[in-house]
Design goal:
Elements: H1 3-32, H2 39-44, E1 52-59, E2 65-67, E3 72-78, E4 83-89, E5 101-110, E6 113-121, H3 130-138
Parallel strand pairs: 4-6
Antiparallel strand pairs: 1-3, 1-5, 2-3, 3-4, 5-6
Length: about 150
């Protein structure tokens, strides 16, 4: 075998291993990625009951109900076309409020009801955590147009 042929074989074997690694990464990431659906997409999707889902939308105005004894919350997520009822047991994020964007992760109980295990509150681009705002004010660097 010549040196050029040995180099060619090494390059071909390296390319085969690289292609195999890329295929494995893409195949595994396809199974592990979770995208969120809007309520309309979830209703139109033929999703099985008792499946894990992620839903994004806005909390409908005046839909938040709280049972303080059991730390249980129920509210409605909407995309202004369809609504999904959500029940969540736990502590809601600080940014959670009505007419605010949220993403819910949980189990689909029926076509229009989800038992949430996680609630993620979304905020707009003007949000500034209070601790950072305080540090900026102390450093005399705070400007109101942030």
């Amino acid at each position: 075998m010549t040196v050029q042929f040995q180099r060619l074989i090494i390059i071909l074997i390296s390319l085969i291993f690289l292609a195999g690694a890329v295929i494995l990464i893409l195949f595994n990431s396809k199974n592990n990625l979770i995208f969120f659906f809007t309520p309309t997409e979830l209703i139109n999707l033929q999703n099985k009951i008792d499946n894990q889902v992620r839903i994004g939308g806005f909390v409908k105005s005046k839909s938040l109900k709280q049972n303080t004894n059991k730390n249980l919350y129920s509210f409605i997520i909407t995309d202004n076309q369809n609504d999904i009822e959500v029940e969540f047991k736990g502590i809601l994020p600080d940014l959670f409020r009505e007419e605010q964007g949220v993403i819910i992760e949980g189990i689909l109980v029926s076509k229009k009801k989800v038992n949430a295990s996680k609630v993620f509150a979304k905020h707009d681009e003007n949000y500034m955590p209070a601790s950072i705002k305080k540090q900026l004010e102390e450093a005399d660097y705070w400007q109101k147009d942030y």
